[in-house]
Amino acid sequence: MGGSQTARDMLKGAIDNHRTDYQINSDNTRGSSIDAVSAKGETINGVYGSTVTYDLNINTDQLNKFIAGTSQALNPLTMGYDMTTLHEISHIYNNLDDQDVIYGAPGPNEKVINTIRRELDASGQFTRPFGQRESYSPMDVLYKGKLYNLTPFERAPAVMGGDFNKINVKKNLFMLTPNTK
Fold it and tell me: Model pTM?
């Protein structure tokens, strides 16, 4: 079976966890995220415990910008709907946080998603690589006179440095999205 064993195991585990409920929303006024919204005590299979409901928000405008902003060499699904949903579920399933302070560090949660990307690349089912997200936090870069967020998906010095005099948009792996600050 191709694809990603890590993704299959995580989704199956999240679905099989009867102490976790997900309500899925698409609120484009906030980023994609997952937050606990309620908890209730109940008995399941004769065992009393707490069931937590999570609001899983998928910002479709944000994801469409991620998809549109992938370089020509990078698989546009690397930050698409499925990978972003897996990223958010991984926060709860794996109890992991993001690293959103230091440029150049993917953080604990993104490392799990990078494992899924590696497995997808190794499956040979895709013509373009998913790459490895090398930084959770993007870098602000000026490109063609406009400010963008650059997210590197490889450790090439030109990409990590945001040097568009040296980046090859047809060969290097990165995502470039409009800066919304």
Answer: 0.92
